[in-house]
Amino acid sequence: MAGHRAQWKGFLKVGEVSCGVALYTAASTSDRISFNTINIATGNRVNRIFVDSETEEPVPKEDQVKGFELENGRYVLISPEEIAAAVPESNKTLEIDAFIPCSAVDDVYFDKPYYLTPDRTSGDAFAVLRDGMKADKVAAIARTVLFRRMRTVLIRPHHKGLIATTLQYDYEVRSSKKAFERVPKVKIEGEMLDLAKHIISTKIGEFDPASFDDRYEEALAELVKAKVEGKSIPKRKKVEVSQPNDLLAALRESAGIARKSDDKPNRTAANANKGTGRQRAARGVAGKSAASKAAPQRKAG
């Protein structure tokens, strides 16, 4: 992938078939708005310093080691060399253990996605594995050492390449039974169920990531722009939660509104002209700066 650095290079292997591959990050947060920590008294950026929890004296980096807490205040110390020795040895091979139906893995186990591409000499072997998996509609379970940890990876065909998604271990995924144990048992039927199905039917669409709004980023961009321009910050509108005694009325009202949804403007087209929150903030600030520079010239004329 031009312009991107591979996160990992190695081999994809099943049986006696192997091909050279590379992993590239499929998702990035680098375009998100980020903040620095500032000393409000001086306006200077604050640096992070590690201090001793008892003496409150700064601890230089060479005196910092990892420690596992045995009990309150007692630790077993682990050196960087000991940690490095405990990391499984990597053979740089994604060894496929099994092929499974693409829908067989609960997505609660999904961790991070990566694009998996062949190297310049392995196009044929890569295509054989990719097209065979497409034909049989299966995904592959493989294991290897990634980023100093033994990882299980789910590999699926994706356009001309493959997607390799690292998976959470079972002990890392919390039980859904415990999470849902307080959800009440309520049976919805009759008009309520019919109205709910009707509302859903009027909202059926397609998965289009380009139409999704990152409202948090947009709100941050607007906040930055307002602060730069000295404007007041808009107050958030309070959301009213539907109560059991007015739920049916809310469903009826929603069904009526849903029938007029065709009159709403196309969000995808609107979003195409908006740009990212960061871009809009930059345009707003840049516009103000340009206007400020131009003002004296206009006055002189």
Automatic annotation (TrEMBL):
<keyword id="KW-0234">DNA repair</keyword>
<dbReference type="InterPro" id="IPR006164">
    <property type="entry name" value="DNA_bd_Ku70/Ku80"/>
</dbReference>
<keyword id="KW-0227">DNA damage</keyword>
<dbReference type="GO" id="GO:0006303">
    <property type="term" value="P:double-strand break repair via nonhomologous end joining"/>
</dbReference>
<comment type="similarity">
    <text>Belongs to the prokaryotic Ku family.</text>
</comment>
<keyword id="KW-0233">DNA recombination</keyword>
<dbReference type="InterPro" id="IPR016194">
    <property type="entry name" value="SPOC-like_C_dom_sf"/>
</dbReference>
<comment type="function">
    <text>With LigD forms a non-homologous end joining (NHEJ) DNA repair enzyme, which repairs dsDNA breaks with reduced fidelity. Binds linear dsDNA with 5'- and 3'- overhangs but not closed circular dsDNA nor ssDNA. Recruits and stimulates the ligase activity of LigD.</text>
</comment>
<dbReference type="GO" id="GO:0006310">
    <property type="term" value="P:DNA recombination"/>
</dbReference>
<feature type="domain" description="Ku">
    <location>
        <begin position="56"/>
        <end position="185"/>
    </location>
</feature>
<keyword id="KW-0238">DNA-binding</keyword>
<feature type="region of interest" description="Disordered">
    <location>
        <begin position="255"/>
        <end position="301"/>
    </location>
</feature>
<dbReference type="Pfam" id="PF02735">
    <property type="entry name" value="Ku"/>
</dbReference>
<dbReference type="InterPro" id="IPR009187">
    <property type="entry name" value="Prok_Ku"/>
</dbReference>
<protein>
    <recommendedName>
        <fullName>Non-homologous end joining protein Ku</fullName>
    </recommendedName>
</protein>
<comment type="subunit">
    <text>Homodimer. Interacts with LigD.</text>
</comment>
<dbReference type="GO" id="GO:0003690">
    <property type="term" value="F:double-stranded DNA binding"/>
</dbReference>
<feature type="compositionally biased region" description="Low complexity">
    <location>
        <begin position="282"/>
        <end position="295"/>
    </location>
</feature>
